[in-house]
Structure formats: structure tokens, C-alpha cells
Amino acid sequence: MARIWLNHWFSTAYNIINLIKQGEEDFVVIGSNTNENWIYKPVCDEAYVEPKVEGEEYIEFCLEFCKEHRIDVFMPRRNMVLISEHKKDFEKIGVKVMVEDYSIMSVLNQKNESYELFREKQIGYVPDYYIVKNAAEFLDAYNELVDAGRQVCFKFVNDEGGKSYRLIDNSNKDFNSLHYPQSSSRMSLENVMKALNEREEFEPIMVMPYLSGNEVSVDCLKTSSGVIMIPRVKGMTRVESVEYDKCILDICKDFYEKVGLEYPCNIQFRYLDGIPYFLEVNTRMSGGVQMSCLASGINIPNIAVNKLLGIDKEWENNFKAIKVSYVEYPLIVD
Q1: Cα 302 to Cα 319: distance, rounded to the nearest angstrom
Q2: pLDDT, tens digit, 9 for 90 and up, residues 6-30
Q3: Are 85 and 63 in contact (CB under 8 A)?
Q4: Using CA of residue 272, residue 274, residue 279, residue 282, what is the dihedral sign?
Q5: Which of 29, 183, 187, 296 is most exposed, with the fewest beta carbons within 10 Å of its own?
Q6: Interatomic CA distance for residues 255 and 298, integer angstroms
């Protein structure tokens, strides 16, 4: 029997847990969250509420939780980087942790440092970007990009899920615009500068050209029989298309040869002028990994857990170009 713990994941962990359990009679999945009601609780065999603590106090909680609940495999999302720094502490008590070593986690979870890594190792294409810490630096970076004929977007360097992402849109809002929904990610330069000028200095912001083409999200996992790579092309609707573009696959192969990760990751690209630029590498399973699994016939979560347990699961990609999506349905949480 293997006891597997997921700490405070996003709601699509509901699907990840179902995939982990697929065909397994001896897997017990334990879930935890800081909220009392969370969406993937119904598919957990055991469910607990986490304390709202951070830093070393959270590490102490996790270690005690693993001991108390006899955890074999820990799949963290909350505080992944911090947990990777203490990975050996978990291994000492017999817990296998699904995170990369801190040396690479600390780089890939800082967008500017990961871009520098890609440039240094000559992996794929990295867009021009500027790191700014005050309003004057921001305006200089904005003007440089506009002078180069680019539309500008930005986000905080320390960001998860693109929460701080904004696209600068100075277009006039005429009557016809009232017929269309307005995205909260769009802001005028005037409003951006007004917000930034409230602080003399702020945490680093990355300013870069807006990559207007399709976004491609590649779900990956290294195995003994090769690297699983499933690219999903994301559009404006919830219908996504799994397409095995050779250029994208070659960049991902190059990434694995030069950097190499052992556990599931999600490599994101976005096109501009026909070039697939790196967006970021998420050192965890993506929120849409279940769609990649359905389209390809490969169960990444299950293969990843078994890999940690020392078991090689066979897999074979169908390499079919398939459109895939999802529907929402009601669920009783408690």
C-alpha cells in the first residue's frame, strides 16, 4: 500500500487524483487544504485542514504530518520551492517527494533567472524583456518596446498562474466596445503608471512584448523509456488541440538534454511572428494535464507516482492530432 499526500492543490487536482488511482487498488490519497471546503476533497481517501502558517513553521507541519499519517509519497504544490530546499529532511523519514532539487527549482520558479538559463544554454527562443523596480524604469522599458513596434505586457517576477499579468491597451473605448466583455488583464498606460507611482520601489516586474500568437502548453515527464511530451494548443475557447509540432518537440528535447527534470513539468510557449517563445516552465503538473492524458492515452500522474515508488510503467503515445475540452458539472463537496 502507498499513501500519497497532495497539499493545497488547485481544483483540477480532482482529475489528477482520479488519474493517480486509475487501475491501482493499493493507493491511498490524502488531501489537505487551508480551507474547510475544497473541490477535490470527495476523491480523497482522507482529508485534512492545513494550518495557515508559512516558512519553517510550515516545513515543521509537513514533516510531522508525514510522520503522523505514514506518508510514502508527497506531491506538494503549496510552498514547492521551500519544500525542495528541505527535500533531504523528508527523505530521512522515508518520504519520497515529487519535487526537483532546490538548485533547479529556485531558478525555474524565477522567470528572469529561467530566461537567463535558457539563453545561457541556448535552448529555444526567449523574448526581449526588462526587469524593473520603479515607475521610471518601467516607463523606459515600455518606451523601448513600443519604439521597436511591440505591444507591451508585464507581470511580477514572483507570480503563479499569471495573476499579476497585465496587457497595456491604450485603444479608445467607443460605443461598439460595450457589446464585448472587457478583460481585467487589460490596462491603459495611464492607469498602470498611476498604480506604480504609489510606490517609490516595488518587487521586480518583468516587462516584455505581448506574444500575440497561440499559446502551447506541453505536459512532460521523463521516464526510463524516454520523455513524455504532449503539447496542447490553447485558444480563446475551452477547446484545446493536441498537436505534435516538430519545432516545439525539438525545443523540449533540447531542454531535457541540457537541463533535465525528473518529475512532471509543464513547459509553456507562445508564438510571435511564427516563432515559439518560452513563457515559463512550471515544475509541477499543469491544471490541464488530464486533457493531455485523455488525448494521448498516457496517464502522466499515475506513471509519475509509480516512478517515485521505483516502478516503471509502460506507456505509448498515439501521436494523434485531437481536439479536447472539458465540461463543468455539479459536485457535493461535503
Answers
A1: 19
A2: 999 999 999 999 999 999 999 999 9
A3: no
A4: positive
A5: 183
A6: 21
* Within-domain flag for 270: yes
Chain-centroid distance of CA 118 in Å reads: 17
Instruction: Please indicate, yes or no, whether residues 202 and 262 belong to a single structural domain of this protein.
Output: no
Shared domain check, 296 and 194: no
Which residues are bridge partners to 27 per DSSP? 2
Per DSSP, 29 falls in state E
**Contact (CB, 8 A) for 276 and 269:** yes
CB within 8 Å of 114: residues ≥ 6 apart: 107, 108, 278, 280, 281
Contact call for residues 283 and 118 (beta carbons, < 8 A): no
Residue 166: inside a domain:
yes
**Domain ranges, residue 20:** 2-99
Can you say whether residue 72 is alpha, beta or left, with left for phi > 0 and alpha for psi between -120 and 50 degrees?
A: alpha
Give me the mean pLDDT over the 224-233 stretch. Answer: 97
pLDDT, tens only, 64-98: 999 999 999 999 999 999 999 999 999 999 999 99
Any domain includes 332: no
Residues 64 and 136 in one domain: no
Q: Do 12 and 95 fall within a single domain?
A: yes
49 domain-assigned: yes
Judgement on whether residues 234 and 291 belong to the same structural domain of the protein: yes
Q: How far apart are CA 57 and CA 71, in angstroms?
A: 19
| Residue pair 39/331 in contact by the 8 Å Cβ criterion | yes
pLDDT in tens, 287-307: 999 999 999 999 999 999 999
Question: What is the full DSSP assignment across 73-131?
Answer: EEEE-TTHHHHHHTHHHHHHTT-EE-S--HHHHHHHTSHHHHHHHHHHTT-SB----EE
Residues 168 and 190 grouped into a single domain = yes
Number of domains present in the structure of the chain: 3
The reply to whether 86 and 8 lie within a common domain is yes
Please name the helix (run of DSSP H) or strand (run of DSSP E) that holds residue 34, with its range, or none. Answer: none
Same domain, 198 and 229: no
